[in-house]
């Protein structure tokens, strides 16, 4: 007797009153039939609640049976022409395969993925044919986060639609010449096609959640009508192991984002093997999402299982379904019907009897829910009509569906990109492609004539939904005027004598002035991650309010204060809590609103600099891919300005990270006028000109006086370097001192020491962006290399300094690498010495930290004198005197090693 029979008998044996149990079950069955499942659920919840209040221990479970959530008799059937849709999917499967295999026969290292689309094809087909709207006058369009590895299938569909050419398909993953197709969804590389990047894995679901919430934000503030739009995100079950994938599902449930649908393609496999070989990933995800307040729809079994489940009066089939682990399910689909009969149905005699009249081929044709158009349609319909919850659809599928022995349901499926002739022939036969044996070796793309009924159907379905998807808007239709720089006049003027402010305060005042602008003010999106008070920005709470879909259901504890915490249904601030990834995802949604919503928004995401690009670097890279436009503000920046917080709080490297993102425009300003000029330039480029760039600006919390702007300095600020103070003419020796951020003030002080103590005059340069200086220099260097017969150009850095005298010394609050970027563009014959804060941060006073990292005025002075000594203009003994005079220990350890 099997273990399953033993368990069933044991269950009955442990029941002290079988008849009473059956009476309760019959009563519940009657309620379901006469009053519906909602009533039954209500009664069960009341009984459980009563039992718990009376002291009964009833363990909580957020799992349901391992069957489809939508009963067979309640799901809506797909209204489309399923014969046409099946043929269209078959052609897409073939063309996707041909695209990848052709590419790898040209160059075996190009790669590509076939298995993900093979398992997703039915789901994507149902969505494209029946659910997903393109932007029209009446509908803003649905937003699609396509599973990254399924891109070949999306290209195959666009090819049939006539949106992509055969030449483009032939050049899949060969895009350097500008006419190929990108490996994954990349708006940067295909700006009119892909809406969003969804790789690295995990970023798609995270960004989709905040995108859905941003649609609610726009609607609540009256900026755009978004109540009829949905965000759909497709991801793999293995991808759900990424912390980013699951990290924000609680927010989506809490915010009741009924405009959000996540479809998890549960093909049970990741790259190396099973996702949960010893468990059940669908049950695990159901528990997580249901507990977070989501509407969970499981699509596990295809229609062929309905009759078997209807016969399962004793629940034996469901029990075996639940007890079978994913590793076994994977194995079943890698074998054949006879194997499934023996090892699955053979787990209980009644199950063998249940399928006794079915052939092995009949058993093999029992599909999984993710490949059944009716089951998928029913699930999508439920998601589409969700009233007060986000929906997750857990659809069970087969990885590599259609590849047979070449990779179907096998551990190697994810990496399958090369098929031999036998596998290609088998695929042709399985999907009934009208391709002759003679033509098979060339793996031809298949596209029927435009008047074929299937092709007409394809176009009719998209016409009914407003047009083709995916598609991306490159520029917003609206034109918003940007105010003159004089709108920030207060920040352009010198601070009053004795008055000191930080660049953070300067930024806050520029932001406040911008919020008051009648044209741009409503489009500003301040985004905070629980640090408003750190940056002195809590005044915005009352001024513009914090967005909340329910308003403020309580009286804030600080209501009697001027700057109390005010939540509002039309609030303008997005407060994300202690959540940098969420803050960045909200910023991305706002920074790409010009494309997704045809509304220009101006997001300012302000955060602890150390917890910015270091923590969300992958999202920042994705923002570049998405052609985001907005401002990232790294507060309390620099290694030595946040003096009391220590190693994990002090940023000396974010500008190095920012330099790696080509369309990120980074600045490290020192003075209020620089902050104003930089932000105004960003508005000009991103709002007025609609350029696809975003700005990273570091600001500090150190207070000091500001000199105000001088005429003509604007261009140098924007380019990254300008002469701040010209040194005197009294002395024979001269040096050039450069700096940025608060360390520029140490450089200014060093100029005084050089003059007063060593009779050396120094010109002081403010360098708000060494990265922009380096990019300009590299561009000029490239031009000169490719135009050898023409007069060479000079970089802006070289032009600025070539007329000056003496060695060049730089000190910043960042790693030496930051300022070392421009070494190649130093005027010929000039020495270039860089000081920086390499090493881990630590807690101490600002003065002590700058001494520790060797970037303060005394080290700048010593570096300048050493450079003069190296040029033979002073004796080395003078440098030694300076070291002694300023109390520097020449044997102190290198800070990078401590």
UniProtKB/TrEMBL annotation:
It is an enzyme of class 1 (oxidoreductase). This is Pyruvate dehydrogenase E1 component. It comes from Herbaspirillum aquaticum. The keyword Metal-binding applies. Residues 1-33 form the PH domain. The lineage of its organism: Bacteria, Pseudomonadati, Pseudomonadota, Betaproteobacteria, Burkholderiales. Mg(2+) binds at residues 237, 267, 269. Component of the pyruvate dehydrogenase (PDH) complex, that catalyzes the overall conversion of pyruvate to acetyl-CoA and CO(2). The keyword Amino-acid biosynthesis does not apply.
């Amino acid at each position: 007797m099997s273990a399953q029979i033993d368990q069933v008998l044991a269950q009955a044996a442990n029941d002290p009153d079988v008849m009473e149990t059956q009476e309760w079950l019959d009563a519940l069955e009657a309620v379901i039939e006469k009053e519906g499942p909602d009533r039954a659920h209500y009664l069960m919840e009341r009984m459980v609640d009563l039992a718990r209040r009376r002291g009964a221990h009833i363990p909580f479970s957020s799992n349901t049976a391992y069957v489809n959530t939508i009963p067979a008799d309640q799901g809506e059937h797909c209204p489309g022409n399923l014969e046409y849709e099946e043929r269209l999917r078959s052609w897409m499967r073939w063309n996707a395969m041909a695209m990848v295999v052709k590419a790898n026969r040209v160059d075996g290292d190009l790669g590509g993925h076939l298995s993900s689309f093979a398992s997703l094809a039915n789901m994507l087909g149902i969505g494209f044919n029946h659910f997903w709207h393109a932007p029209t006058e009446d509908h803003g369009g649905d937003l699609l986060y396509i599973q990254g590895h399924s891109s070949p299938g999306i290209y195959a569909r666009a090819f049939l639609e006539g949106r992509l050419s055969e030449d483009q398909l032939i050049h899949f993953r060969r895009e350097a010449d500008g006419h190929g197709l990108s490996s994954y969804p990349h708006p940067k590389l295909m700006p009119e096609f892909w809406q969003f990047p969804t790789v690295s894995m995990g970023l798609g679901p995270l960004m989709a959640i905040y995108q859905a919430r941003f649609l609610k934000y726009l609607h609540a503030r009256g900026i755009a009508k978004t109540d009829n739009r949905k965000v759909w995100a497709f991801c793999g079950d293995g991808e759900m192991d990424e912390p980013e994938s699951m990290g924000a599902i609680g927010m989506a449930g809490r915010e009741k984002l009924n405009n959000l649908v996540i479809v998890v393609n549960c093909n049970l496999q990741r790259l190396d093997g099973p996702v949960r070989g010893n468990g059940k990933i669908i049950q695990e995800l159901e528990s997580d999402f249901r507990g977070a307040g989501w509407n969970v729809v499981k699509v596990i079994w295809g229609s062929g299982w309905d009759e078997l489940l209807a016969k399962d009066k004793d629940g034996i089939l469901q029990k075996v379904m639940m007890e079978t682990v994913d590793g076994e399910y994977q194995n079943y689909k890698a074998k054949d019907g006879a194997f499934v009969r023996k090892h699955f149905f053979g787990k209980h005699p009644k199950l063998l009897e249940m399928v006794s009249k079915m052939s092995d081929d009949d058993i093999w044709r029992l599909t999984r829910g993710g490949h059944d158009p009716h089951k998928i349609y029913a699930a999508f319909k439920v998601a589409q009509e969700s009233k007060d919850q986000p929906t997750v659809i857990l659809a069970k599928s087969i990885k590599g569906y259609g590849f047979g022995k070449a990779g179907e349901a096998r551990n190697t499926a994810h990496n399958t990109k090369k098929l031999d002739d036998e596998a290609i022939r088998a695929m042709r036969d399985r999907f009934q492609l009208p391709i002759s044996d003679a033509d098979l070796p060339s793996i031809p793309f298949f596209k029927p004539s435009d008047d074929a009924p299937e092709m007409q159907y394809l176009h009719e379905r998209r016409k009914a939904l407003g047009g083709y998807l995916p598609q991306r808007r490159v520029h917003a239709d609206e034109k918003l005027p940007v105010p003159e720089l004089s709108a920030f006049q207060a920040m352009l003027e010198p601070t009053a004598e004795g008055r000191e402010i930080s660049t953070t305060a300067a930024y806050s005042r520029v932001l406040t002035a911008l919020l008051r602008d009648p044209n741009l003010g409503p489009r500003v999106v301040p985004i905070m991650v629980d640090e408003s008070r750190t940056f002195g920005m809590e005044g915005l709470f009352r001024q513009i309010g914090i967005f909340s879909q329910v308003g403020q259901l309580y009286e804030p504890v600080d209501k009697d204060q001027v700057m109390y915490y005010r939540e509002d249904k039309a609030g303008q601030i997005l407060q994300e809590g202690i959540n940098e990834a969420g803050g960045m995802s909200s910023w991305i949604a706002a920074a790409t609103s010009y494309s997704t919503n045809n509304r220009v928004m101006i997001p300012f995401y302000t955060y602890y600099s150390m917890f910015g690009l270091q923590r969300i670097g992958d999202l920042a890279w994705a923002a570049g891919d998405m052609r985001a436009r907005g401002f990232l503000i790294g507060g309390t920046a620099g290694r030595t300005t946040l003096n009391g917080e220590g190693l994990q709080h002090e940023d000396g490297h974010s500008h190095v990270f920012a330099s790696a993102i080509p369309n990120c425009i980074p600045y490290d300003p020192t003075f209020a006028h620089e902050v104003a000029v930089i932000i105004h330039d960003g508005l000009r480029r991103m709002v007025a000109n609609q350029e696809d760039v975003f700005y990273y600006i570091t600001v500090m919390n150190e207070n000091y006086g500001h000199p105000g702007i001088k005429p003509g300095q604007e261009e140098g600020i924007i380019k990254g370097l300008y002469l701040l103070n010209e040194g005197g003419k009294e002395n024979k020796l001269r040096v050039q001192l450069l700096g940025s951020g608060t360390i520029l003030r140490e450089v200014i002080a060093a100029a005084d020491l050089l003059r007063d103590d060593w009779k050396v005059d120094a010109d002081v340069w403010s360098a708000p962006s060494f990265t922009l200086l380096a990019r300009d220099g590299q561009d000029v260097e490239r031009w000169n290399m490719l135009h050898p017969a023409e007069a060479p150009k000079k970089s802006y850095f070289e032009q600025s300094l070539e007329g000056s005298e003496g060695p060049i010394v730089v000190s910043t609050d960042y790693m030496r690498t930051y300022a070392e970027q421009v070494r190649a563009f130093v005027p010929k014959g000039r020495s270039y010495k860089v000081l920086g804060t390499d090493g881990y941060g630590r807690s101490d006073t600002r003065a002590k930290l700058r001494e520790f990292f060797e970037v303060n005025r005394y080290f700048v002075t010593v570096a300048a004198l050493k450079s003069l000594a190296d040029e033979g203009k002073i004796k080395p003994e003078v440098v030694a005197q300076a070291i002694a005079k300023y109390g520097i220990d020449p044997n102190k350890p290198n800070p990078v090693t401590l």
